[in-house]
Amino acid sequence: MDALRRSRERNGSLALCEGIVIQAFRTDIKPPDERTEYWADAVGQAFIQMEVRSLGEAVIHGAIRRACVAGIQAGVIETSPQRLARTAPLIAADGDESLVVSLQRTGAGVAHHDGQEIPVAAGELVILDTRRPYAVEFTGPVRRHLVTVPREMLDLPDSALRLATGRTYSTRRGISGILASYVNGLVTMTDHCICAPTPKDFLKRGIVDVLTALVALEGNIREAATPAAEADLLLRLRSYIRAHLQDPALCPASLAAEHHISVRYLYQLFKDEPMTVGRWIQRLRLEACRRDLVSPELAGQTVAAIAHRWGFASHAHFSRTFRSVYGVSPMEWRQAGVLQTDSLQAVDLPLQ
Predict the structure, then answer these.
(1) How far is 213 from 216, CA to CA, in rounded Å?
(2) Most buried in the list 28, 302, 322, 347, measured by CB within 10 Å?
(3) Tell me: the pLDDT tens digits for 2-18?
(4) How far apart are the C-alpha atoms of 319 and 307, rounded to whole Å?
(5) How many whole angstroms separate alpha carbon 267 and alpha carbon 252?
(6) 62-69 vs 21-26, strand pairing mode
(7) 56 with 139: CB under 8 angstroms?
(8) Has this prediction a pTM greater than 0.85?
(9) 210, 175 Cβ separation under 8 angstroms
């Protein structure tokens, strides 16, 4: 069976039971001078028509494994450094109307969508609209899980889609985390040739419902972003940050995920503030450490222990950051505080 499967994969397809057909493409079956053209055709057959250009390597390398489940394309794509572009001529030529849900499993890249440059790190999810030009670039090898959902399956206005696409989402929690689990589930079924009877309509309904919920939520949040609503959200974000400063996982990405907003929108909320949200979190942590370093009650704790309690994982990084902000090292600040405390205690001694 494995030999038969490999043979069929080399020819581009593998039929499974329950009406599911898997397609598989590998550039290593072609001579080097034919691989770019072959790869562009493979990407188009499996997912969507794209222009392909190599980055950093003379020869394109790639592999795709993809299945169609009740009208939804799901699969895994592994690529060498390259740029894939969905251009206006391609959009006009094929007329495809789908949303591409791309989950970055390994490696990192940059998506260009609606004039925005969106960094995509491993573990992040990005949604792209095939009706609008976009491009993705990878400077190193990557593995992505992809699902394409026809626009007609989503009962959503274009205004909501425009607000929700072309941005990254955390996959650690919230609706985007649920969507990522559906994407992984569909791809796992494809990748491991699971042939057990599968409720395909249920799988389709599940991913369509979750994707619809995420797009609707993002669209509603952005549309409801009146000045008063943004001010209230900014107040809640500040309160959350102060309450969770000691959590080492607190960062802009986790903060955005916890409040069901995109990281880009989070930075937009802080655009009129004296510093970015990431810098503000760092400054609050430094202020907390500065107070604790001269607290008599904490004199027995090391500088590293105090830094760790306020979310600094690296003592060296904490020391460099502390000095860059306050002009002295944490130890120098502590020693100066001790001397000042001793001096005050001497002045306050009662006269004999």
Answers:
(1) 5
(2) 322
(3) 433 443 444 455 545 45
(4) 9
(5) 8
(6) antiparallel
(7) yes
(8) no
(9) yes
